[in-house]
Design a protein that fits this description.
It contains 2 helices and no strands. The protein is an all-alpha fold. The termini are far apart. The model has no long low-confidence stretch (mean pLDDT 92).
């Protein structure tokens, strides 16, 4: 099973992909592969942010009880 990146690792990988795309460092043959990887990383980040938001809401609700 593949180990999932942490949020910070995923963001760093995204930063590198975007930087390389902006600099034209990817040829057409690997561009679609990098776009798919970027989409996977964005989805991972969104899931982690959503989970963290839900956990914070639960903690705050528990404090208000």
């Amino acid at each position: 099973m593949e180990k999932k990146e942490t949020y910070n690792e995923a963001v760093e990988k995204l930063r590198v992909i975007v930087e390389n795309m902006e600099n034209g460092e990817f040829d057409v043959d690997i561009l679609s592969e990098k776009v798919k990887e970027a989409a996977r990383l964005i989805k991972l980040c969104k899931e982690k942010l959503f989970k963290a938001d839900e956990e914070v809401k639960k903690i705050l609700e528990a404090l208000d009880s």
